[in-house]
Design goal:
The protein is mainly alpha-helical and 129 residues long.
Length: 129
């Protein structure tokens, strides 16, 4: 797969923090904390799997990782990743390696930014408990 080394880091991705609040309203605080932390951990793992699969040009693994990321993302308010994820998924069927590499790199970067924001929100919620 093509090596993508230059990325713009000024893209902002809105996420739905109200999803986190909904989980805290639906479950007792300790259970909500466990659910969200588990989802964040799984999201981080799948993001890492996506990055590795992209570097190995394993299109099948990229597709599976993207599907998992989208599912977890909707659960915890990262639905904003949907467009980038759909782009990656569509490119797995194409033969444009540089485009796929760029799309995977962008999705990984956006996922990392969202995780950092959600972990910060989760830390605030944990302090309030």
């Amino acid at each position: 797969m093509a090596q993508i080394s230059m990325l713009l880091h000024d893209e902002h991705l809105p996420f739905c923090s109200s999803k986190i609040d909904e989980i805290y309203c639906e479950f007792e605080p300790q259970r909500a904390k466990a659910i969200i932390n588990s989802a964040l951990d799984e999201f981080a793992i799948r993001l890492s799997v996506l990055e590795c699969a992209g570097k190995q040009n394993n299109r099948s693994a990229v597709r599976k990782a993207v599907d998992a990321l989208m599912s977890i993302g909707h659960q915890i308010g990262l639905g904003g990743l949907t467009n980038a994820a759909h782009n990656v998924r569509a490119l797995t069927a194409a033969s444009d390696d540089p485009a796929l590499a760029a799309a995977v790199a962008r999705l990984v970067r956006l996922g990392d930014m969202c995780l950092a924001s959600l972990w910060a929100i989760q830390d605030q919620k944990n302090r309030q408990l």
